[in-house]
Write a structure and sequence with these properties.
419 residues; alpha+beta; 4-stranded antiparallel sheet; 20% helix
């Protein structure tokens, strides 16, 4: 698999580098003024441009701790432009699966070819009243949760940034569902990023009491809902579709529970054009309940083989080019590919004919390389497996709040100066 990562930075790399370094230099000058003859710091020894380049190559898990080194480093690492640069140009991404453990806690399972691990996290949910939460999407370091009855939570586990969004005003108040779970024949969710507008978008598709399908889109930048009913195609019967969508190449992708026609195997919604289209699967795709994944920057479909002992993984080497579908077979039942390791081997979860369950690494020839025995592997049936990639990116509202605080500080300093 030789697919390249696709990236859509909102600014030119050199301009961002210059912008963030200039910001950091202002902080550095302030620190030097306050040192009053103290011993030299690392900023006096290494040029700030070099420190910036070094930090861009530091794994993201360490960056969060490096913010405590100094005010300068905290300012540099917390800058939105630095977060954007690191997300697109860091040498290795940190991927994890997230599962709800109970009503208030979740497990993050980190996927790596050498040292997979897990940790317990506490999403920013309101403790009262208790509500059932489901992970329904991820995008650029943010995770999208659905909570009953009708609200969503966007959260970045690394930075702690979060936002709660209600959509009770657009959904018909039907009968409550068993155990508070989402009814899969009603809802379809999507979460993605529109680089042309520098905006995160959330899709909610729903069915009213008359059986009519609706599609609404929430913009985190404008903090408002947009109705997109005109874009809903006739082929969408939401009782066939998974709730969680996969964001890739400026679009959200869904696959059916039960594939009826390989020609409409993947439904995609372009976040820039606000239009639906489909991608055909290989005619040889076998089995039911296919799943969609992103493997090394390539779209992939997986499903059980007809012999029920193997899993077929079809990888689309060139996006939307049907002839580029390539088959790989993994000798593992119910195998769900999740991502690639640093060695470009396939990491997924499933169970073997020998009775082994959990997370596995296979090479493209189908050889078992590793079995992670001690990782959390419990997942309720039919719930989507969401892969999350860590980032330091802020929500649009965080940037606005930061800018407003800076503006207020300037106004206060101006007032004090004149007094």
């Amino acid at each position: 698999m030789n697919c390249e990562k696709l990236s859509n930075p909102s600014m030119d790399k050199k301009n961002k580098l210059k912008h963030t370094v200039n910001k950091a230099k202002e902080e550095s000058n302030m620190e030097k003024k306050n040192q009053n003859g103290k011993s030299k710091s690392i900023h006096d020894i290494l040029p700030l441009d070099l420190i910036h380049i070094i930090l861009l190559r530091v794994p993201i898990g360490h960056l969060a701790r490096l913010r405590c080194v100094s005010k300068l480093w905290c300012s540099l690492i917390s800058d939105p432009d630095f977060g954007e640069l690191h997300f697109h140009h860091s040498p290795a991404a940190t991927n994890a699966c997230i599962f709800m453990k109970n009503e208030t806690m979740a497990d993050l399972v980190y996927l790596d070819g050498n040292d997979a691990s897990q940790k317990e996290v506490c999403p920013p949910f309101q403790k009262k009243p208790p509500s059932y939460f489901l992970v329904v999407g991820s995008c650029r370091g943010f995770i999208l949760f659905h909570g009953q009855p009708h609200f969503l939570v966007v959260w970045n586990p690394l930075t702690g940034s979060s936002k709660r969004i209600s959509y009770s005003h657009i959904v018909h108040p039907g009968k409550p569902h068993v155990y508070g779970r989402i009814a899969y024949n009603v809802y379809l969710h999507g979460f993605g990023y529109d680089a042309s507008q520098d905006d995160y978008l959330i899709l909610v598709a729903w069915c009213d009491c008359k059986g009519q399908y609706h599609l609404d889109c929430f913009s985190l930048k404008t903090n408002s809902w947009i109705n997109l009913d005109a874009a809903v195609p006739k082929l969408l019967g939401f009782h066939y579709w998974h709730s969680g969508g996969l964001f890739f190449n400026d679009a959200v992708h869904w696959v059916p529970f039960d594939l009826k026609d390989y020609r409409d195997a993947i439904v995609i919604f372009d976040l820039k054009e606000m239009t639906f289209s489909t991608i055909s699967a290989p005619e040889q795709l076998s089995g039911s309940s296919p799943s969609v994944a992103l493997l090394g920057g390539c779209l992939a479909l997986s499903s059980p083989n007809d012999d029920c002992r193997n899993t077929d993984i079809w990888v689309m080497k060139e996006y939307k080019v049907h002839s580029s579908w390539t088959l790989y077979q993994i000798p593992c039942k119910g195998f769900r590919p999740l991502c690639l390791s640093s060695n470009r081997d396939i990491i997924g979860r499933g169970y073997t004919s020998c009775g082994k369950t959990g997370y596995f690494i296979y090479n493209v020839r189908g050889d078992l390389l590793k079995h992670f025995k001690d990782l959390c592997c419990q997942l309720p049936k039919h719930e989507p497996i969401i892969v999350y990639t860590e980032s330091l990116l802020p929500l649009p509202s965080d940037i606005k709040d930061k800018d407003n605080k800076k503006k207020m500080k300037k106004e206060i300093r101006h007032q004090v100066h004149h007094e």
